[in-house]
């Protein structure tokens, strides 16, 4: 597959091996890196032998010093910065945004050289922030986690960003929200460059039923992220922590230092809902996510979000979303 086919998805002339170079930031996210590279490993050979038959990868670095992940596990680079054109993709794995210099200047220079040579660059997790800092996301739409969308907009107000999808492949750039979507993105590359069978083999070993596409929506954006008031946010987070067992409105008000009447007033002013209505919305948004992304029976979902029976849950869901839980699940399955 030619690099320009990143845009078209043409798979008529795959290369002998899919070659990926990884750049790890200081305090990188280990899970995103591990899921991506293990998808390549499992797709590369048969019977889980870890042979690099159909794919190859290197961890690139300006030094061979250990790179510490955000969880404390360290990874050693396996290669210096070689000619970027040796790789089909360069994947930058980001991590904690509070790190001032996640990569050094030599790394930035390498990424710019890769861009000049038309090697596609992928930002994994917050790796897209590193690419944007280097001026390498111009004219490309960046996909980030809903958790980091606000930070991206503040730091790069002129760059288009979205937090509704799990990953994006846009011409010579890719970006990924991180977490389990790293495996989905790697699986797409495996399917394009190697084969659907290789993709299926990798996902089966990883115990992933099926890969998701770039069109799939990020599983859940907590409702409290829609509001700026600290008291509303704190109350909604508490609601999310008490979906099954519930918490009374007076106790909720007390948890954020307000009386019940004060909490009612704040919620109506900031959200247009009463706390009770907001609580129902939080429960239903969680149920909506479970319906779309799990096969749990309806009664289990109802119990998980604090309802005693499926019929009450169904009535409330339909009143809020205009369709029954079963209808939503059927429509979601149709999309996938």
UniProtKB/TrEMBL annotation:
Annotated PROSITE patterns: HTH_ARAC_FAMILY_1, HTH_ARAC_FAMILY_2
Cited InterPro entries: AraC_XylS_family_regulators, Class_I_gatase-like, DJ-1/PfpI, Homeodomain-like_sf, HTH_AraC, HTH_AraC-typ_CS, Tscrpt_reg_AraC-type_HTH
All residue ranges annotated as the HTH araC/xylS-type domain in the record: 233-331
GO terms assigned for molecular function: DNA-binding transcription factor activity; sequence-specific DNA binding
Domain of life: Bacteria
CDD domains attached to this UniProt entry: GATase1_AraC_ArgR_like
Cross-referenced Pfam families: DJ-1_PfpI (PF01965), HTH_18 (PF12833)
Keywords: DNA-binding, Transcription, Transcription regulation
Protein name (Swiss-Prot/TrEMBL): AraC family transcriptional regulator
Protein species of origin: Rhizobium sullae (Rhizobium hedysari)
Lineage: Bacteria, Pseudomonadati, Pseudomonadota, Alphaproteobacteria, Hyphomicrobiales
